[in-house]
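Q: My collaborator sent me two sequences in one message, no labels, and asked for predicted structures for both. Can we handle them in order? The first one she listed is below.
A: Yes, handling them in the order given. First sequence, followed by its structure tokens:
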Amino acid sequence: MENRKLIQVDEKVPLNLMIPLSLQHMFAMFGASVLVPILFNINPSVVLLMNGIGTLLFILITKGKAPAYLGSSFAFLAPAGLVISKWGYPDALGGFISVGFALCILSLIIYKFGVKWIDVVLPAAAMGPVVALIGLELASTAASTAGLIPTQDAPNIDSKNVIVFLVTLSFAVFGNVLFRKFFAVIPILISIIAGYITALITKVVTVDQVSEALHTNLFVIPNFQAPHFNLQAILMILPVILVLASEHIGHQIVTSKIVDRDLLKDPGLHRSMFADGISTMLSGFVGSVPTTTYGENIGVMAITKVYSVWVIGGAAVFSVLAAFIGPVAALIQTIPGPVIGGISFLLYGMIGASGIRVMVDSHVDYSRSRNLTLTSVVFVTGLSGVALSIGQVTLKGMVLACIVGMVLSLLFFIFDKLGLTNDK
């Protein structure tokens, strides 16, 4: 295999190459994806199962033209947490299903009216920084996961965490530049293995933990739960649709730039959003958490230049299997934070760089006042920490920046039509 050979979306990959590439994607999403069910105090096995099934459905509905892995959505944490504390997890499931249904309705509206409106409401000068913010606002999360930021519970940074983090990140960074042939397409997987070995040596992960994971029951059944529909709970969770829609459009645009195909047109934003909604609905019906396209996996594609949906599908199959094979799920859960943080450090940066690429590829002219204003306001809104609360949902970061960018872009469009702008 040639160094850095690009593998496109529809290309099949030999089995001996697909297995490590698929594992790479599964490991990349794992840390963030299982964190959501842990915060909701439910078994991660059902989440691994539905993430895999949701991803396979996404590939099917998008006709194998949109490479994306569906993982657990963080957008629901605040409102769902309130619902769970007040009524219980089944009521939150009813809210998840309602949001998934609303996403499907929105996809039908997009199917009816097309996607040209996106160029009006989010031109490149606004979309570029919005996409960049997807990665940049997660930067602190990567550092926190790695244990590099002091907290009230852990005021001192553990040097062992730093060592594991640096080894993991070093293999990811230098492997991305120096690895050749087969190893050139699996630098993330290699860095995870190197980081895990380092964690064992430094005793961040103990031999007893590994032994306990390996002695888990061979087959386990995920803990399924039925939803309960509570109108108050649904109304508390429903505004999350604003977050999901903005996040989904941003992810599809950055993926389009990475794979050099317009995924908003083919297979279409309506198909990908519908698939996202269906996956979230199905997850809610069996007791899992809502799903969303994952930035970690977008970052893996950007690094490896492997965009094949066959690889993504393989990762989904591994996720389904891991849900039923006890030792596998247990062993994966022993991957420590410094390893996940080391990988995320690079992946999130790749997404941020993709946002800059949107502006460069679109030849945004910053001699025009509107473009300079749009980019400036969107970046500052997203990074300033300012928040807007609507009921139980708080809009901040990339989502609030996206909404502000859309409002400004629409106003500039109206000013153009009225002949009021000075840079047309």
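Q: And the one she listed second?
A: Here it is, processed independently of the first:
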Amino acid sequence: MLLSGGLDSYTAAAIAREEGFDLFALTVRYGQRHFYEIEAARAVAHALRVERHVELDVDLRAFGGSSLTSDAPVPKDRAIDPAEIPSTYVPARNTVFLSLALAWAETLGARDIVIGVNALDYSGYPDCRPEYIAAFERMASLATRAGIEGVRFTIQTPLLTLSKAEIIRRGIALQLDYGLTHSCYDPDPAGRPCGRCDSCLLRAAGFAQAGVADPARAR
């Protein structure tokens, strides 16, 4: 499972656990400016009782190209249009992350990779779409020894067609503590969310539509 420390990856992993999977968590430190999510990932991994949690350094700041891996300003207070790819898009990030997860999965003998992508309430990232996930599954069967030997890898995307409010309701039903999670792209030095970036706005709207308070805002 790819574990960022946000509420989506937490919920996706919890659904996988409910379905009987043993969980191996991969968190990538890619030079993201919102590094507080790493601490959140550790808390979430502990709460999920994962078999093993690997934190891997792949510093994408060397490439730049995103306001999450550079000093470029993070967009604030914008009307989110899924047809527009924002500056917070990190070039090929999910492809990099899924490739790392695929390498570990093949080593473990695992056949399922869990990722918390969502194609409804999101910021317009091209690597969150169903056609991308399907293409990566096909690639996995071609690019691995396990695939050549007939093993089929499945990218589990339990949140793909859910709204943010539906995701939150599902997590509450699973008794998840969303106070452990971090979503903000541009937190202050103390880690407090800005409340104005895309991720903060989508999270706030999700909790409002779900009719529950965000526990992370109360801490």
